[in-house]
Amino acid sequence: MALIDRLIWQIETHLNEALSLADIADRCGVNVHHMCRAFQQATGLTIKSYIRARRLSVAAQEISRGAPDLLSVALDAGYGSHEAFTRAFVAYLGVRPSDVKKARDLSDLKLMEPLEMDKSMLVDVPAPEMREHKPFRVVGLGTDVRGFDISAVPGLWQSFAQRWLEIGPPGVTYGVSYDMGDAGDFHYMAGMEGPNVPEGMTTVNIPGGRYAVFTHKGGIGDLPKTIYSIWNRALPDAGLEPAMAPEFERYDERFDAVTGRGEVEIWIPLA
């Protein structure tokens, strides 16, 4: 079973219990960083925001069916008081619990239904190679990625291609993802190693250590599927725990930047 399916099953079957991220990760056999990264990548949501939305949606359904005691519904949803529950309910659904109780109608409310994994994103990924890498520095152009919306990344690479010789002699290029946030946001850099830091460019230091190296073969347009499959199936199936450190794509002579085809290495730091 893919990791995202295991996560959703754990959340749904324990929805009325006190759920900590550490507990869910332990039940799914991964570390918290891996779990959060995979879930956010697959859904665009944080685990905590999904749990909150699901609890409030279930509460709305119970209230619309005539639940006699709103405090009991609030407690089941994880809120310690009627007031706290009402504030969260209004913030998420835009109406008060008492309004739902009176109307007995949810047709105008946008409830969060249990998520299902997008199976079309899963592809076969060859087993990784275990490699050691020394610390190094990447210089390049960066952009913020919010909610795993990577639409700005192709344009970033085009801008970088016009300036990369300012950094130094031609060589291997890197796509680095780092500074992962709690909401699934991160910073992405298109860059390379080199002695110069041109105006308008920044640097990121990649720590040395042990990496799981996966190889993507084919078109660059299918790279997101490979990365999705690495986090949701290949890493957990191999029993590997990623570290909370920059991960990177490595583009060398095996990749043709003109056609967008070839081989790309994906380096995942291991805990």
Can you describe this structure?
The chain has 271 residues and is of the alpha+beta class. 37% of the residues lie in helices and 22% in strands. The protein has helices at residues 3-13, 21-28, 32-43, 47-64, 70-76, 82-93, 97-103, 153-161, 223-237; strands at residues 129-133, 136-145, 173-178, 186-192, 202-206, 209-219, 247-251, 255-256, 261-269. Strands 1, 2, 3, 4, 5, 6, 7, 8 and 9 form a nine-stranded antiparallel β-sheet that branches. Helix 1 (3-13) crosses helix 2. The radius of gyration is 22 Å and the shape is elongated. The relative contact order is 0.15.
List the helices and strands and how they pair.
Blueprint: H1 3-13, H2 21-28, H3 32-43, H4 47-64, H5 70-76, H6 82-93, H7 97-103, E1 129-133, E2 136-145, H8 153-161, E3 173-178, E4 186-192, E5 202-206, E6 209-219, H9 223-237, E7 247-251, E8 255-256, E9 261-269
Antiparallel strand pairs: 1-6, 2-4, 2-5, 3-4, 3-7, 6-9, 7-9, 8-9
Helix pairs in contact: 1-2, 2-3, 4-5, 4-6, 5-6
